[in-house]
Structure formats: C-alpha cells, structure tokens
Design a protein that fits this description.
TIM Barrel; alpha/beta; globular; eight-stranded parallel beta barrel; NADH_flavin_oxidoreductase; oxidoreductase
C-alpha cells in the first residue's frame, strides 16, 4: 500500500471511526503529580499531541488502584479526585479532532513499594515473603479496572485500553511461569485468561454502547507462551470482545525464533487470525512513513507510534506532508527534546531508555 492509505478512515465496532491509521502509543513519561493527578506537564503533552494528526491518542498507563503503582509520578484513575485532570485531557484531545483512550494499568507483582505500591503477585513464590492474591482480592482488582473504565467514560474519553503487556498484572496472570494458582484464575489457559476476559466483559456491561475497548498484548518474556497467547487472542477476536488489539512488539519486524511458529514474523502470528470486526495494529520501531505504510501490507489495520512521536509530536502530519519522512536518528540531545516541548520530567524518564538521550 502507499503512504496515502495511512490516511483512510477506519471504522471500529463501537463509537466513532478513526480518521486515519495512526494511533499514539501509551507512553510512560513519569510527569504526573505524586497523588496521581494529571499535572500541567501532562496537560501540555496532551495539547501537543492532540494537534499532531493522530486518529486516536492513548494516555500513559494510569493505575486503577493506589497500591498498583509501578513507577513514580504515575497517572492515576483510581479516585474521583482524578476526574478533573482527566476531563481536561479528554477535552483537549477531542478539540484536536482525535479519539481518546485511557490506558488502564495495575503493576501486579511489579508494584513498587518505594513509591507506595503494594506488590500483588498471582503466585506465592514470585516474591520472597509475599503471599499471592486471594480469589477475593483478584475480584477486587477486576472490579477496580471496571470502575476505572467507568471513570474514564465520565471524564469524556471515547474508551480505554487494557495494559496486558510486559508482566503487569493482566500479563502476569496469563503466564504459566508467574501463575500457579489453583482457583478459577489459574491452571488452564482458559483460567489464566479469565481475569482479562472478565475485565473486558465487565467494562462492556458498565459503559455505554459507543465506548471503545482496546487491549495491549506483548508476547515476550515473563514466561509467556506465544501459542497460548495466539489462542486467547483468537477467542477474543472471534467473540468481538474488543475494538482493537494493540501488539506491543519491541520490533514490528521481529521473527519467531522457536516453537510452532519458528521462522514466521511475530506480527503474522496474529494478523493471520480471523478478526471479524476487531482491528489489529502494532508498535515497534516504526520510525518512518514508508515503514508505517509497509505494516498495512503486512496485515495491520493501524500503526502505533511511540518513539517517533516523542521525537516529533506531529508525526502523522509529517508523514502526510512527506511520504518519505524519516525520524531524526537516535540518540538525540536533551536540548533537542527540550526545544521540541518535552518537559524535564519526560526527558529524565527518557534518559532511562538505552541510546535515546545523549547529554
């Protein structure tokens, strides 16, 4: 396909259509207030990307429980006290012409005690001296995801996206390595997927008919099994439980190195699935106009822009103006990011990424 195909609209099962094929990936930036409220820096970032031509903008990961925090200065959505800041963010995105979603997050066993987190592992043996969540506590987490989605709807967001990647709680429960439970949330693949599916089904019941649900899935590390995740994704797509699947790949071009799908592209394992009305997209080193267009040929309905969007907040507009646009080479200086409008908090966060910021 040509770059111009990236600017064709894309309908979703619920709510308004995406005006093009660009989605802003959920970008951790550690710039909220310590109580989880959206800061002036969050608002400024959203103002910048809202003018950038994206069809749908996801917020950074917002924790659904105070104890589920995974890093300092994380955006919160676990209290009605967060509504004012969230409402302002949703309003800004809508004014810019895009759809909006809050990424819902709970750190699970990776919750950070030094910033107020309470580690919540699926299994007893994951962390020394920390007991697994009881069945009742798992149900509480489930219900807090659903309550957070309702809060996002009240704030004016078009939808939510569940963070089911990188070993956070939904991903953790999927993993046979990190989940050896014997209740209905552990054991079989069906049981390990139960928490995610109950959250999705609960959000669909609690929120309006136009409310959109996305699901971010990663397939690497944390004991995850590609074949199992493909089967789970196949069921979710077949049942049309979500509006879009967001494949969080470190590299959208990576090849499967072992197992039943050896030699295939990781992306094709999921894009080859029947998807009915669900849309499928990917993140992973999408730094140029040509690469974004190639991914439509590779079976994606849309692309998620991460690092390229940090480097250039209006990446879709750059691509629209120049079909051969390529992102500035990494690393870049802090001054480059500062001049572009990134806050010092965001820049400090990016210093933790290998080869992104050169001082």
């Amino acid at each position: 396909m040509s770059v111009s195909d990236l600017f064709k609209p894309l309908t979703l099962l619920h709510g308004p259509a995406m005006k093009n094929r660009f989605m802003l990936a959920p970008l951790t930036n550690q710039q909220s207030d310590y109580d989880g409220a959206a800061s002036e820096y969050d608002q400024d970032w959203i103002e910048q990307v809202a003018q950038g031509g994206y069809a749908l903008i996801q917020t950074c990961a917002a924790n659904v429980e105070a104890g589920g925090i995974g890093f300092a200065r994380q955006l919160g959505i676990y209290s009605d006290a967060h509504l004012a800041g969230l409402t302002s963010m949703a309003t800004t995105i809508r004014r810019g012409g895009g759809l909006s979603a809050v990424q819902l997050h709970h750190a699970g066993h990776r919750a950070r005690p030094e910033v107020g987190g309470i580690p919540a592992p699926a299994s007893d043996g994951t962390l020394p001296g920390v007991k697994a969540l009881t069945t009742e506590q798992v149900e509480r987490v489930r219900d807090n995801f659903i309550a957070a989605a309702r809060r996002a709807e009240l704030a004016g967001f078009d939808g939510v996206a569940l963070h089911g990647a990188f070993g956070w709680i939904l991903s953790e429960f999927m993993s046979p390595t990190y989940n050896d439970r014997t209740d209905r949330y552990g054991g079989s693949v069906e049981n390990r997927a139960r928490l995610t599916i109950e959250v999705i089904e609960g959000i669909r019941r609690a929120c309006g008919p136009d409310f959109q649900i996305g699901w971010r899935l990663s397939v690497e590390r944390y004991g995850l099994r590609l074949e199992e995740l493909r089967d789970i994704a196949a069921e979710i797509l077949e049942r049309e439980l979500i509006d879009y699947l967001d494949l969080a790949l470190w590299d959208s071009a990576q090849i499967v190195k072992e197992g039943a799908f050896f030699g295939k592209s990781m992306l094709s394992v999921f894009t080859d699935l029947p998807r009915r009305g669900v849309r499928v997209g990917t993140a992973g080193r999408i730094m140029s106009a040509q690469r974004a267009a190639q991914l439509l040929d590779d079976g994606c309905d849309f692309v998620l822009i991460g690092r390229a969007g940090i480097l250039q907040r209006d990446f879709p507009l750059q691509v629209q103006a120049n079909p051969f646009y390529d992102s500035p080479p990494l690393p870049v200086t802090a001054e480059y990011l500062r001049t572009g409008g990134l806050s010092e908090r965001f820049i400090n966060h990016m210093r933790g990424w290998p080869s992104f910021v050169s001082d």
